[in-house]
Amino acid sequence: MARRGNRLAAESSPYLRQHQFNPVDWYPWGAEAFERARAENKPILLSIGYSSCHWCHVMERESFENESIARRMNELFVNIKVDREERPDIDRIYMNAVQLMTGRGGWPLTVFLTPDGKPFYGGTYFPPEDRYGLPAFPRVLEAVAHAFRERPEEAEGNGARVLEALRQLESPRPVAGVLDRGALLRAAERVARTYDAENGGIAGAPKFPNVPVLELFLRAWNAGGGDRYLAMACHTLRKMAAGGIRDHLGGGFHRYAVDNRWLVPHFEKMLYDQAQLARVYLDAFLASGDQTLSAVAREILDYAVREMRDPEGGFYSAQDADSEGEEGRFFLWSAEEVRAALGAADAALFCHCYGVSEHGNFEGKNILH
Predict the structure, then answer these.
(1) 305-331: string of b/e by CB count within 10 Å (b at 16+)?
(2) Diameter of the chain by CA atoms?
(3) Does 97 score more than 70 pLDDT?
(4) pLDDT tens digit sequence for 10-25
(5) What is the pLDDT of residues 209-248, one digit of tens each?
(6) Cα angle vertex 266, ends 254, 295, to 5°?
(7) pLDDT tens for residues 99-123?
């Protein structure tokens, strides 16, 4: 027997429609959900994501499609789903709130609110059982609902403090003086202390293609800060271009790498990443004269026009990490597939150049690098 769709079935957002057959009693963002929360004095569980987000898909499969977990969500909370690409205004507010509370953020974003919308607890992805050093989602649900029920003044107080902090973020106090060349160079010097001299970028993992940092280095070089800033920017861009975070066949860059050497990406591709990366690769080429950086910029733009452009002229915001139910299905290759496509002689050269082996470097298959 087919499951009856929930309130998301008629929404225009493809992300919300992805969740229409969850056993969770989802509401879209709006007055109806908040009115019910106030009438029943229930906390709100706000879940924010987007249609191409891998970990959003994972949390849906593990928790939102789980009958037992969904039943607890429905009993204890009023549940709201938001598409961050449709409502970036809502996402910005509650992402800032979770970052203030936990020091980190990301998607899926999971935020618990008072019935009038004040965030009092939150996080990102929660697994269905204790895993990755994270508490199990069912345990989080029970603990948050118990705290709201037994210590409502604490939840209200936490929410009020977060709200005040958000107001301060939105209304920064002006600082006397002007921004000058010295401020630029001091900022670049502080960021440079975290630089990964071997792999480029900021040290550690995961590794994001942090374009503002690369632009800061280029500006510091241009302001007379020294050639090391140009060297750091170009080294990072070359390492990224050589790594698996770049799609060497289809073009463009994936969202980020989970390791510290740009090899294993999360496979979604975001339009805004392509836009920023094309510009910084071009800027680095103009500063350095390195033609390889120019070639990468052209490749990014060719990819965006070819694969992310809608026939009516606009651009799609993202390509999904998961295809046909598999993560990275169209970005992973076996040695046998390469031989079938190229023939034995060319395949041997290709596999040597792009690190393709019989055993693979990701779940038995190969990420080209």
Answers:
(1) eebbeeeeeeeeebbbbbeeeebbeeb
(2) 72
(3) yes
(4) 999 999 999 999 999 9
(5) 999 999 999 999 999 999 999 999 999 999 999 999 999 9
(6) 20
(7) 999 998 999 999 999 999 999 999 9
- The amino acid at 202: I
The Cα 180–Cα 23 span in angstroms is: 56
Q: Could you write out the three-class secondary structure of 114-145?
A: CCCCCEEEEECCCCCCCECCECCHHHHHHHHH
Element (H, E) at 256: strand 256-257
d(CA 42, CA 113): 9
- Tell me the Ramachandran region of residue 17: left when phi exceeds 0, alpha when psi lies from -120 to 50, beta otherwise: alpha
Angle of CA points 228, 234, 238, to nearest 5°: 140
Q: How far is CA 53 from the centre of its chain?
A: 7
Between strands 26-28 and 78-83, the pairing is parallel
d(CA 190, CA 176): 22
- Exposed, middle or buried: residue 359 (CB in 10 Å: 0-12, 13-18, 19+)? exposed
Of the candidates 201, 330, 356, the residue with the CA atom closest to the CA atom of residue 267: 330
| 187-200 pLDDT, tens digit each | 999 999 999 999 99
Is there a cis peptide before residue 108, judged by omega within 30 degrees of 0? yes
Q: Which amino acid is at 177?
A: G
pLDDT at 1: 34
Q: Check: CB of residue 284 under 8 Å from CB of residue 229.
A: no
Is the separation of the CB atoms in 82 and 29 below 8 Å?
yes
Residue 293, token pair as written in the block = 């950086």
